[in-house]
Amino acid sequence: MKVIDGNNMILGRVASNVAKMLLNGEEVAIVNAEKLVISGDLPYLVEKYRKRRTMKDKASPQHSPKWPRRPDLFVRRIVRGMLPWDNARGRRAYERLATHVGVPKALEAADRTALPGASAEKLNTKYHSVELLCSRLGYVRG
């Protein structure tokens, strides 16, 4: 199992690399998912994801897309968007993904890797943590 540390890493770059790993048959765990960063102006990002959360299908609202507020599930949903969800291969790959807020005791001893080229230090624009975005969407850490 590959363990990826999300501390100060770009969400999109991590998600695309993780999706490739999952499709290649690897099991992947993302720790510190709340510390991944997403670039952009915070009010714009909040509005964008708030709209996604409220989108409903008139014919069958229960089958509408679900967008969670919890940071680990939010990251998991972003990775899901990069997998071929409409076929069995993508769904099997998604089952091999685990995301965690913080570092669980079972993974403390595991070697955590940082993906090359995904560090937030290379960004020349505003960026915010997934935890901050989720808290603005209504997530309260309990």
Commentary on this structure:
By secondary structure, the protein is an alpha/beta fold. It has one domain: Ribosomal Protein L13p, Chain: A. It contains five helices and six strands; from the N terminus they run βαββαααβββα. The chain has helices at 11-23, 42-54, 71-80, 88-95, 130-136, and strands spanning 2-5, 28-31, 37-39, 97-99, 112-113, 127-129. The strands form two sheets. The chain has a four-stranded parallel β-sheet. A two-stranded antiparallel sheet has the order 3-6. Helix 1 links the parallel strand 1 (2-5) and strand 2. Helix 1 crosses helix 3 (71-80).
Brief synopsis:
The protein has 5 helices and 6 strands, in the order βαββαααβββα. With 142 residues, the protein is α/β, with parallel strands linked by helices. It is globular, with a radius of gyration of 15 Å.
- Characterize the main sheet: 4 strands, parallel
Tell me the name of the CATH homologous superfamily: Ribosomal protein L13
Average pLDDT = 92
Percent helix range: 25-40%
| Shape descriptor | globular
- N-to-C terminal Cα separation, in Å? 29 Å
User: How is the CATH topology named?
Assistant: Ribosomal Protein L13p, Chain: A
Radius of gyration: 15 Å
